[in-house]
Amino acid sequence: MFHTAHKSACLVSHVVSGFISTIVVTLALTSLFASCDLNAHNDANLEHVQHKLDPRTSPLRSSNPADDKSKQSKQSQGPKTEHSSTLKTEGEANTTERAQDARLEAILHGLSLEEKVGQLLFLGFGGKVYDETIRKFLERMQPGAIALFGRNIKTPKQTKTFIQDIKSKTRMKVPMFIGVDQEGGKVERIKKEIVRIPSTRSLGDARNTEQTQAYARELAEGLRNYGFNMNLAPVLDVVEAGSVSAIGNRSFGTKQKVISHGRVFLEEHRQTGILAVGKHFPGHGAAKVDSHEELPKIMLPENVFREQHLSVFQQLISEHKLDMLMTAHLDIPSLTKEAGTPATLSNRVLTQILRNEFGFQGVIVTDGLEMAAIDSNYGSGEAAVKAVNAGADMVMALWFPKKKNEIRRALIQAVRQGRISKKRLEQSVLRILKLKADYQLLKID
Question: By the number of CB atoms within 10 A of the CB, which of 104, 130, 220, 384 ranks highest?
Fold first, then answer.
């Protein structure tokens, strides 16, 4: 009798707990957007966001409850990173890690020089339908990652089909990361069947990380539903109140806001199996001009820049929240110790500070090397060689076919001539392969 009553009490408690949790999330999101001064257009967005974050009404749910349970089970697993919780003993973990390393080494040694260089390429291309032109481009370049933009995205059905065709019809030795810029606000490539917000700043201004957590979870699940496995977000640049910054409301705001909101954004993406790329290291918030147009110069003393901007990245790295970082094209003489050298091409910034001092073991990708801050001063190909030697693992070229070919040729030639050592090349390729294994693109178990 007591056993039956106890089971009934537990059941009631579980139901009530779930009901209360739903109310808390709904009220939290209402608070978020009530705190933002939204116009009529954004009021409509608010209703859309609240509707999508209600698990009872979300259009991303399957009509089959069994499918929902299967999907949730897969997503809850997240990537197999070294920081995932595990019940293995230390000895078992070390044995597993050594076995994984051996498999990754075997994959590495099975790649040609061109294929190894391909893993370093992060590319974009035109088109909304998979065709022979796209297939030949991808199979020739063998890129480690690609990004889709508005030029590739028309409707949810078209985009999902496009991504599935890229995955299934392209002959690749190593699967690609397929990413998108979905920061929120003005930097959103997907407009439908995805949760949306007025701006990243609106999350920071609300001062409630639970709201950011709910948004990031639904965003990551939406991206996964499309077929993406990477999001080129969050922005981890600090923008102090009242300051002039090229980043603007793409930032969560002050340092503490960036750390607290960035932390949950990264966590929710990782748990869903979406690789979140933090940007723009070492910190773009103090730059007043856009590096797409020219090389911004930041004249802060090193101790001030470290405290205000670098400390965000250092904190999140120390908490093991970051798996991949994007660099910024910034001239910071106090940090690089070389006036005029962009942070993207600085060994002191990428290797001495990020790798050695902060202990970052993840993948470093440059921002676009076609941007004027880089291309007008170095040329995209030479910049790619300098970036890799400085410590970058991947180089980004999203727009111009000529520049993509220039970068690929320059990297291959640099390895053949010894300007980039074989050891340096393979260090980056192994980091990329490991990250793909962690996010289950590579099946090596």
Answer: 384
* Integer Cα distance of 133 and 145 in angstroms: 18
Which pTM does this prediction carry? 0.82
- Is residue 19 predicted with pLDDT exceeding 90? no
Q: What amino acid positions are annotated as catalytic residues? A: 292, 367
Looking at the structure, do residues 336 and 396 belong to the same domain, yes or no? yes
List beta partners, residue 397: 123
Report the domain count for the chain: 2
* Beta-bridge partner residues of 177: 145
Q: Exposed e or buried b for every residue in 270-290, given b needs 16+ CB within 10 A?
A: bbbbbbbbbbbbbbbbbbeee
Residue 445 domain-assigned (yes or no): no
Asked which of 22, 48, 77 is the last residue of a domain, the reply is 77
Q: Which domain holds residue 33?
A: 2-77
3-state secondary structure of 329: coil
Average pLDDT, the chain: 84
Inside any domain, residue 336: yes
**pLDDT of res. 80:** 59
Beta-carbon neighbour count of residue 350 at 10 Å?
27
Residue pair 114/412 in contact (Cβ under 8 Å)? The answer is: yes
